[in-house]
Amino acid sequence: MASVLSKSFFIPPPALTESNLPDQSGKVHIVTGGYAGVGLGDGVRDVEAGNLYLAAETARCYGKQGIIIVAWNPGNLRTELQPHCPWYHKAVLWLLFHPAVYGTYTELYARWSPDITQSQNGAYVVL
Asked: What pTM was computed for the model?
């Protein structure tokens, strides 16, 4: 009875688990962009530039060992992270920003795409 109830009330286990993941050995991902608690304005751009430099320099130093480093930016996404913005500010952001699911697409592409190989080491991925 308990197993029937648990299966009907809880979500099923994920189809993608540690046992059936593709080989990710030697891949390093550096996330750029976003505010990430850094603050507003130039600080965000400085952190993003630093992450791009870190990815390129790490790829140069460790790429010969089979390590693939990519930096990726989920982009400007429409979310509810600006709840206190005036309505006209939200309207402009809604026109300029992309749906939040595109941030997920960028991450999935950067992490799992067979297109990201040793020849793209140090690349900056934005979809």
From this structure: 0.60
